[in-house]
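**User:**
Everyone, produce one record:

**Assistant:**
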Amino acid sequence: MLDAYLKIKSGLIKSLTRLENTASSERVKAAAQLLCTKLKADIFSLVVVGQFKRGKSTFINALLGEDILPAAVIPLTSIITILGYGDKLQITVFFQNGTEKKIMREELSLYITEKHNPKNEKGVNRVEIAYPSLYLKNGVQIIDTPGIASVHEHNTQTTYEYLPSADAAMFIIGVDPPLTQAELQFLRDIKNTVGKTFFIQSKIDTVSETDREESLAFSKKVIEEAAGFSDVIIYPLSGKEALEGKKEGDSQKVKRSGLFNFEQSLEQFLVNEKGKALIQSVAEKANNLIDEEMLLAELEEKSLHLPLEELENNIATFKNFIRDSNQERIDSERLLAGEIRALQKDILEEDIEKLKQEKTEWLAAQVEEFAAGHKLDGNAKFTELIGKFIDVQIREIFGIWRTDEEKTLRKHLEEIFKRFMDRMNKILGQIILSSAELFGIPYNQIQMQEMLPQEIEFRFETTDEPGALSITIDLMRKTLPKALAHKLILKEAKEKAKMLVDMHCGKARYDFSLRMERLMRNYRLNVAGAVESVQNSVLKALESGIASRQNTAVKAASLEKRVRDKINILKEIQESLKN
């Protein structure tokens, strides 16, 4: 699996390693090493999620071709379990107190199951399993999560907490029964958290083909219409048959199980979407680093042959130019900070205020309508239901708004950073042009390509602490008539709804502002630092020509050969990148 992607990545890593070993600029060395590390650590995290007893553990075992995870007829997994590549099977339990413990496969259920570790009484943080599967060897990491909507509510919370760290989700649905309300709510939540979701219909071997097709069509319609996903593809799959086929080495059985089709789609996604973007970004940055090193090498070579007086005059001229360009750089950084502050004030704060005004009144009306439909409920039940209703509404309000607001802010941020990058690239271009023209050498324009991170979204919990809606319910249950109690509960519920909207608007303002400030600071440091580094590297290359005048003829010839060899190596690396 993933052979094409792995081959491309391996070739790029070799080119980057060679560039790191050849470069003279410390910035280029560090940048090449960072790009290489980024590629090597290209872990693709696939989180497996779904309602309990949908066959998640069997599905994972089928992917690996081995019975690694335990399976049972009761809600099982209660701990996050991460599977990655290793030369041999090795299981490590990481505890919340910072300690860790190696265990045997037979002991695994003692730590990750609800039966043997109820409510995580053993204080397990996570379990990591290393296994020599080709599936995992290509940078794929599989994460097994506790099932949602089981009798153990803390399991659902554990799954929610892990979602933000996933590159893609594999959502397991059943054929009988099909989707439940709990699954639909979970899908609405992960839609705003995980960029890519694969849908797998498990246990297809347990129903007839007619029932399976009917269930698949129903699930697809519900996921698209009720959960908001578009163009949903569901992969029918028998985990049991796939696992048997892999263990028996029967490729036809694996194909019949449906696993082969899913694996093909996963590979296509990794290579054509996630992998392609990563490879292109790294290759373009590597080319720019080579252009930078080529310029430095050719400047150094030129400085070795230029008359000393002319060389000193050119260096003095270049230093004067640097002083002027430094002021331009400082001015550009101030403009960037001003534009970010204006974005926070003119867009973010206005959008939050608009949201607060619209949704405060809307939610109050929704609470009124909900209460009208539950007049017959007892006081305690009425309190519980209206509290849960408000929590669901808050989740939906801020889940939808967060996604839309992130798109709006990203669009503005991209425009702001592009203007800043254009200004800084102009300064960098002037530095390159000035040095190249002074010494009469050809050059390629170096373009910095600092990218905006894929995610800038804020995250916050929409659930309240238990008892937030607790207006002396015990007293009311005993003494107040239902009509009067409901009236008082409704009044507090509306106040709670107003408070929650205001509170989460404040969280949104703080979180988005904080992330934008941090993003701006890192972006500015990286880009401005790159410009300054090029300046210093050019000066260092030119001044080596002055220092070489003190060398013997043999040393001077050796230095000239080293520079020429370096130029040839850089050309070879550049050619390998093109290929």
